[in-house]
Amino acid sequence: MLEGESLLDAVLRNRADAPYACKGGVCGTCRAFLVSGEVRMDRNFALEPEEVESGYVLACQSHPVTERVELDFDR
Ligand code: FES
Questions:
Q1: pLDDT at residue 9 tops 90
Q2: Which of 13, 48, 51, 75 fits a disulfide with 33 by CB distance 3.0 to 4.6 angstroms?
Q3: Which domains, ranges and CATH numbers included, belong to the chain?
Q4: 74: which residues sit within 8 A by CB, 6+ positions away?
Q5: Model confidence at 17, in pLDDT bands (50, 70, 90)?
Q6: Beta-bridge partners for 70
Q7: Inter-residue contact 70 to 37 (CB < 8 Å)
Q8: Relative to the CA of 46, which ligand 1 atom is closest?
């Protein structure tokens, strides 16, 4: 991880096919399930409160809070 970068950008450096469109927290294309760890989201205009409660995050807005974070884009 580089300082200040989003989880999406970190993933894209290794996996060019990670899903995204707006990178602004609006479209929801980067929605991923947080399998383990904790993240902080800058903005969220896409996910419903229920989705957040169920463990979904927007990768383009997420920054890791824990040392290890595991995301699942296919869930
Ligand atoms: S890419 Fe649009 S919300 Fe993340």
A1: yes
A2: 75
A3: 7-72 (3.10.20.30)
A4: none
A5: very high
A6: 36
A7: yes
A8: 3
Spacing, Cα 50 to ligand 1 middle (Å): 18
Q: Do 28 and 8 contact (CB within 8 A), yes or no?
A: no
* CB-based contact 41:8 (threshold 8 Å): no
Per-residue pLDDT, 2: 86
Q: Distance, CA 67 to ligand 1 centroid (Å)?
A: 23
In this structure, the number of other CB atoms found within 10 A of the CB of residue 17 comes to 7
Distance 61 CA to ligand 1 centre (A): 8
pLDDT tens column, 30-66:
999 999 999 999 999 999 999 999 999 999 999 999 9
Which ligand 1 atom is at minimum distance from the Cα of 22?
Answer: 2
Kindly state the tokens that stand for 14: 């290794």
Of the chain, the end-to-end C-alpha distance in Å amounts to 23
